[in-house]
Amino acid sequence: MPLTVACDGSETAGAAARWAAAYAVAAGESVRLLHVRPSRGGGPEQLRPRRPDVEPGAGAPGRRWRTSRTS
Fold it and tell me: Mean pLDDT in the chain?
């Protein structure tokens, strides 16, 4: 069962979510990152899943994404 980490878009929550995801991946666990916001009822509302394998900035802290340059 994957670890689910939710982030509300704030800088602090984003940093905590990235750290938790990187920690889980290093431990060999699968991770699902969710971008959420509070709803009118007070509970979280999912906006969209984050995919560390395809979205820059959704992976491990300190990881830099490079673009290849061809001449």
Answer: 66
Q: Helices marked H in the chain — which ranges?
A: 11-26
Question: Which amino acid is residue 49, in one-letter code?
Answer: P
Residue spans of the domains in the chain: they are: 3-50
The pTM for the full model equals: 0.43
Token pair in block for residue 26: 């290093």
Residue 61 · residue 52 · CB < 8 Å: no
Q: How far is CA 24 from CA 2, 14, 42, in A?
A: 9, 15, 28
Cα 57 to the chain's mean position, in Å? 8
